[in-house]
Amino acid sequence: MQIVFLTALGVGGATAIGAAIGFLFKKMTHKFSDISLSFAAGIMLAAAIFGLIIPSLEYGGKYQSIIVTVLGIFAGAVVMNLIDKLVPHLHQLAGEDGESHPDTNLNKVMLFVIAIAIHNLPEGIAAGVSFGTDNLTQAFLIAGGIALHNIPEGMATIGPMLNAGISMKKAFIYALITGLVEVVGVLIGYFAVNIASAVLPFALAFAGGTMIYIVSDEIIPETHAHGSERGATYALLAGFCVMLVFEVLLG
Question: Taking the model in full, what pTM does it have?
């Protein structure tokens, strides 16, 4: 349990680390952000496949495991889709032009923080669920992939908040809150599969589906929207291959 809690703090703390770096690079270029996020996306994609979906297939009978895994993947994607419909996309809340009126600053920032937090919760749950397999190496790799994704994401959230007139102290606190939500998600995922181990195959596939959805629906379109799609593609492949190497060496 101590290992899970420390890992949860690491995953959530990665957002705060990214936010701190964001203060140093307030004018971070789109190219740098796109490549960083794409590299993290490649790691997340590999983690979803090797650490969540394939282990899900290894539970139960041959045909039963396939059905449960497929249903879990689509269930994860559907839940993320519903979240996207209920919560505005982050770039809409951030305001790409950086302009904001004083009377809307507070509402805008609170929506921004809430949106990030809600999107972070399923990622935390995915990391927590991975500990249910008792394969600590896989669990650490998945948590590491999500943490790497959180660093550039944390960096990207600072600029819009500062542009909206939020002080550096408050901006960091808001970023820290979104990271703490991910800590909660890790603990929820861990306790859920330990209380009811029978749901582990579905939960693993569900977590894998949420991660693949995030990569396909959010990260790839975002990283291909600013003219850096070639570099972003190779960065994603590099991230995937790094995870593949770790899987072979440590698996």
Answer: 0.76
